[in-house]
Write a structure and sequence with these properties.
alpha+beta; 167 residues; globular; 4 helices
């Protein structure tokens, strides 16, 4: 689903070098925010457990500007992983467009619930999920018992992605 006429959002493999570079940039930013590495509990996402990974490209320049993926938790639930946009594009709708595309992919794959986590050093991420129709939920999986983790969930149906795209 293309939700932003300035973007070309493409499905790529987890091993795609552009996606890997964007994920590395995200991790470097998070390392700086948290003040240390290894701030993510549990197993890191991989090709094996990633249902879909997307990279958003600016149509005008052809440059990659963001990415995001869905990690399968069970047959009906996925967690958003590595949703990231380059700092200079923030506030321009790139993240919302990637999220809408992820929701459309989730629905197409029969996923009915998407979860997300944002840490204490990510107030922007927490606000983004809250403003995108996600509800706060008790911490799940590797986030249980972690005070610095904030978890969210959203039911996915045929109208979810369209609503997110319009937000």
């Amino acid at each position: 689903m293309q939700t932003n006429p300035r973007l070309n959002i493409r499905k790529v493999s987890w091993s795609n070098p552009v996606g890997a570079d964007l994920r590395a940039a995200q991790q470097a930013e998070l390392d700086a925010r948290f003040g240390y590495a290894d701030h993510e509990p549990g197993p890191k996402p991989s090709e094996v457990d990633t249902a879909v990974f997307l990279v958003a490209y600016d149509k005008g320049s052809g440059q990659p500007v963001g990415c995001g993926g869905l990690r399968l938790l069970d047959s009906e639930t996925a967690e958003i992983k590595r949703l990231y946009v380059l700092p200079y594009t923030r506030g321009s709708g790139v993240a919302s467009s990637i999220l809408a595309a992820l929701e459309a992919e989730a629905f197409a794959q029969g996923i009915t619930r998407i979860t997300a986590e944002a840490g204490s050093a990510q107030p922007d991420g927490r606000n983004f999920y809250a403003n995108s129709g996600f509800d706060p939920v008790p911490n799940f999986g590797p986030y249980i018992g972690l005070e610095h983790s904030y978890c969210f969930a959203k039911q996915i149906n045929s109208h979810s992605a369209a609503h997110t795209a319009m937000a």
